Amino acid sequence: MRHRLRGRKLGRNSSHRKAMFRNMAASLIKTVRVDEDDPQRPRVPGRIVTTVAKAKELRPFVEKLVTLGKKAVAHEQAAAEFASDADKDSDAWRDWRKSDKWQQWSQTISPAVALRRRAFSLLRDDEAVSILFEELADRFADRDGGYTRIVRLPNVRLGDSGQQALVEFVGERDRVKSKKRTAPVVNDDPAPPRDEPVAEEEEASVSDAEEAPTTDADAKETAES
Questions:
Q1: In order of start, what are the domains of the chain with their CATH numbers?
Q2: Coil/strand/helix, residue 157
């Protein structure tokens, strides 16, 4: 029995699982940037289809990568204050390299560089790292966790009848909750007093009822008279 062993083995050894999740995460991140001229472009950006078990293991792997990108954004924004707009190897750029601003920029940007290196060690893909730190980090800047979702698909995989699911980034194609209708307001105020014409009508109806025959005998007497 697998007591205190976290995660699914998925029929693979440790190195095979790491390589599989690395490739799946890179594929999911790279689908965000779609080239319209590419004949093999994904049909829906930011989405891949896999099995339910793999999707549940891939989700925390991808969300930790997005967290690395969000942490780097704060350091990059702080380092922009000491950065230089001069072209590389130009005289202004060389003067900036010799100034104290370069030292401050280097110390401020170093945590962001370390985070990029950590992300690259997990993904091993330059394009995926670029999309992660340049697009996804800004996209989820105001969101605290929950960057992906898993949606089960009704159809099963041919061959082994594996239950399929799709993994995609949130923020697009989200469901909008419908607003609930408010209950009608019941007025508890007492009924307004009746007007005099209404009272007259009631008296008239009562007098008519008294004049009208109430029994067959009375009706007979009325007819004979």
A1: 14-169 (3.90.1030.10)
A2: coil
Task: Give the single-character DSSP code of 146.
Answer: -
| Per-residue pLDDT tens over the stretch 11-22 | 999 999 999 999
pTM here is 0.73
* Residue tagged 């997990």 (tokens): 122
Q: What is the DSSP letter of 128?
A: H
Residues with pLDDT less than 70, the chain: 188-225
- In sequence order, what DSSP letters do the residues of 22-55 get, joined into one string? HHHHHHHHHTSS--TT-TT--SSTTEEEEEHHHH
d(CA 75, CA 80): 9
In sequence order, what are the beta bridge partners of 51?
164
Q: How many residues are listed for the chain in this entry?
A: 225
Exposed, middle or buried by CB within 10 Å (0-12, 13-18, 19+), for 128? buried
Which amino acid is located at 152 in the chain? R
Residue type, 203: E
